[in-house]
Amino acid sequence: MLDRSFIGHQFDPHTVEIEKGRLRFFAQTIGETNPIYFDESAARDAGYKSIPVPPTFPFSIDLESPDFLPVLGLLKMDLGRILHGSQEFEYLQPICAGDTITCQTVLKDMFDKKGGALEFVVLETTFTNQDGEEVVKTTQSLVYRN
Fold first, then answer.
1. Domain count within the chain
2. Burial of 44 per CB tally in 10 Å (0-12, 13-18, 19+)
3. Mean pLDDT, residues 75-101 taken together
4. What pLDDT, in 10s, does the model give residues 29-52?
5. Which domain range does residue 131 map to?
6. Which of 51, 78, 97, 139 keeps 20 to 30 A from 35, CA to CA?
7. What is the pTM of this model?
């Protein structure tokens, strides 16, 4: 069983600069066709200060932590036994190319199902821009097979 005494643990924050090329590549990869994700003029005409992040892009920002999924080390989890169970996004303000985003993750909850055969680790991440404004919140669940 994973050590539930770590519920509430706050991981070290990390900061990522949002680059236009990465946004364009991500948008192309997910099949996005809206020109605001490729053309800065179209983005500005739509009211953005620059190219906005495509849907679900904050997940990739979160993965840029210096330690890949630091929860693995904290809970001594084997990567081969983990499944990404779910992820929810709450968009508060746009993130655009040129922004500097700081991610702060908290281990929110842990619980098990199937008599402990599956353990769930719930992580909540807050994304804050260079102006100190919260722009996105995510909640993700990792499923750990015992």
1. 1
2. middle
3. 96
4. 999 999 999 999 999 999 999 999
5. 4-145
6. 139
7. 0.92
